[in-house]
Amino acid sequence: MKKLLLFLIFLMLFQSLVYAQFQKGSIMARGNVGYKTTHTERKNINPQFPNSDNRTENIWILLPGLGYFIKENLALGAQGGMGRGTNSYSESRTVTRDFYAGIFLRKFLVMDEKFSFILEGYGNRVWGRPFFESSGGMFFDSKVDGWNTGISLGVHYMLSKKIGLELRSGILEYNTTNTYNLMSQTNISQSSEFDLNLLSNFGLGLNFFF
């Protein structure tokens, strides 16, 4: 962990090269497909759902975005997309369709004309519609809302003067979630967790520069 922190400090202080794609005023359009696994300690409010500290969710996310370079090698942008997650806890299973809307701030640490490191901070508002299947055979509609913020680290390679390929991994993430039963109008659960997700959150994407 200490080595990772030192590496991040080095990246932030590193005086990288500047190429036309990353100059102030340039625009970056991106498409990203991500996969992550989260482990959440769940605090249930409805007594018919027992507490569980073993909630694991596997999520696929499609998250395109549009960024503007506010200075050399630094882009600020907006993103939005959707995801699909599955998890199990307390002998129950959930399938969730999530929708995301948020912002990102990305720093390019340019090594040469083609290769760069990327360091990114992001924050998203999240809405979801889970469908629960409990051990007692109960099925009901619900909704989820919360926040998702974090830091990711990755590498970026220019395939041409206008197109780049990236691979990213999450480093640290914070999530808050509230789940509501729409049939009984009750709050089923609340959760808020920090997650070190260096090996559990990956993204692959294409970037287009204008």
From TrEMBL:
Gene3D superfamilies: 2.40.160.20. The keyword Signal applies. It comes from the Bacteria. Keywords: Signal. Residues 1-20 form the signal peptide. This is Outer membrane protein with beta-barrel domain.
